[in-house]
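hey so i finally got around to running the thing on that chain from the lab meeting. sorry it took forever, my laptop kept dying and i had to restart like 3 times. anyway pasting the input first so we r on the same page abt which one it is
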Amino acid sequence: MDRPAVDGARDRPRLGAVFWVSLVLSLGFVLAGLLSPGRFTAVLEATRDLVVGRIGPIYPVTMLLILVFVVVLATSRYGRIRLGEAGSRPEFGFVSWMAMLLSAGVGLSFLFWGTAEPLIHYAEPPHGMAPSESEQAARDGLRYSFLFWGFHAWALYAAVAVAVGHASHRHGRTVLISATLRPLLRRHADGPVGTVVDLCSVFAILFGVATSLGLGTRELNAGLEHLAGVPDAYGPKIAIIVGLMTVSTISAMTGLGRGIRILSLANLTLCGMLLLLVLVLGPTRVILQTLGTGVVDYVRHLVPMSLATEGGSDRRWEQEWVYFFWAWWIAWAPFVGTFIARISRGRTIRQVVTGVVGTSGTVTLVWFSVLGGTALEAERSGAVDVAGVAADSKSVATLEVLGTLPSTSLALVLLVPVLALLFITSADSASFMLGSATSGGSMRPPRPLRLMWSFAAAFAAVLLLTGGADSLRHAAVIAAVPFTLILVALCVSLVLDLRSDRPGHTLRRY
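ok and heres what got predicted. didnt touch it at all, straight out
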């Protein structure tokens, strides 16, 4: 092994260059947005255009390769290797484990997009391949919703989780991305190159979480305006962020075993109740038909959708949808993947991939079929007319669709805590991992450090101030650039590590 896997040593926080550089750059980012919002937005937009034009096409190829990689890895002989010492057993039970990884992985946007995205594609079909508001537009929209939120996205998390978990729990390294790359970087993993890798990971987390929390806050504000007349303005958005982040901070300070685990279990329970309520009270037969046809269409078109080869020579749709979504998921990968690695000690690689990709991906397909199928049926039956506005206000579309159910008040009563818990569980998981990444990979980052990173949502506030939703999307696309290369390197390093785990093979020292 690289060194004895002594948890006590890895638990000692070390505030080094990663912490100080990320802190200074973060403050500089916030100040730039506050002092010169116009120029700041222009720089973000110009950088995003450059990334989309030069690097964008790499995103879908990377996503497909990662999916194939983790499936092959799980089904190979390496799938039996545990993320931990021989004979180790999982730290958390299956239900708690799934609750935490789902809560960290989906975030607040999951609820709104589940209802609104099929409606958006129904009104404006992908690539214009079908007439607007046609049956084919509904089917095309659902399969693309499956693509953007399904197995490809979760495969990213699984790849990072297995690579980091194997390096940490089996080889005794820290949970830093640079330590996972030691088979490739060798001694450079502990030098400037490793520091740059960890900084890229920190900023991918910051931008990814800021994008999700910012877009989620925007939708919450729109929903409150629709329900209670709260003005859709910067002040209410900041109030929403501060309020929910305060609760998130309290949770993050209690650690994994209590705060995050308990809130995740509550989140899973309430989401399950909401899903069951919509399935039972909504158009059940239509929902089941939607799930069946959606899965068939998804499988039939999986390769061309994955490679972004549909739609002919017009690449505008790929730039607005495919590149953005894959960049958004890639930006989340270091945070969620490392978090899943942290809670997966003792599980085999096959169990991690099956749970993260298979179970979570299936939950996603069911979620979008139930909420999206209900929304499409409500729209086509004339019960609501929100397909045209879903792109601008996903929360309003969600509220309007839920309002068509027989027990509207019950659905809305469940909706409020679900929204809060989805926001809070993502935020406190992110603060935990940011604290770990900036304290030398400590498994127990100091509480003041977690407290500081809990309010990293200032990124979202600044981005909202400077350019609204467009700036949030630009930030996600930009942040994903360096981590795309790191993802490929992680997979190569994992293979090198796994080769040293063959029976009778001496583990290499890196």
